[in-house]
Amino acid sequence: MTVARLEFAGATGTTRLEVAVCGTVIQLTGDLDMATAPDLDRLIAGLLGDTPTVLVLDLHRLDFLGAAGITCLLGIRDRLAARHGLLVLRELPAQVRRVLEITQLLDEFDVGGSARSVHY
């Protein structure tokens, strides 16, 4: 398992996102916002390569999903779909699910059930 910690000190405090990679399952912990989304996007782009794949994002430890985070997820989904891959979001916390419902984007993602059987 590979773990990357992205941390940014901003005017409103520190934004943290921890990314744990186990095969094609990535667990996000913390905030996915304008401070962390660009680096997550680059990190995932580097992991994907050119082959079609199913990428699972386990979000059960995600505390916050901002507009830039949503844009990042949509971009990852689109890049995978362009090469016949699939992005699956698993274990959405209530606040993340609510943001995707309010923005009417929940149906834009393949939302799976439990990813707890995967060991990190």
Automatic annotation (TrEMBL):
Gene Ontology molecular functions: anti-sigma factor antagonist activity
InterPro entries: Anti-sigma_ant (IPR003658), STAS_dom (IPR002645), STAS_dom_sf (IPR036513)
STAS domain: residues covered: 25-120
Source taxon at top rank: Bacteria
Pfam families the UniProt entry points to: STAS
Gene3D superfamilies: STAS domain
PROSITE patterns linked to this entry: STAS
Family: Belongs to the anti-sigma-factor antagonist family.
Protein name in UniProt: Anti-sigma factor antagonist
Naturally occurring in which organism (per UniProt): Actinoplanes friuliensis DSM 7358
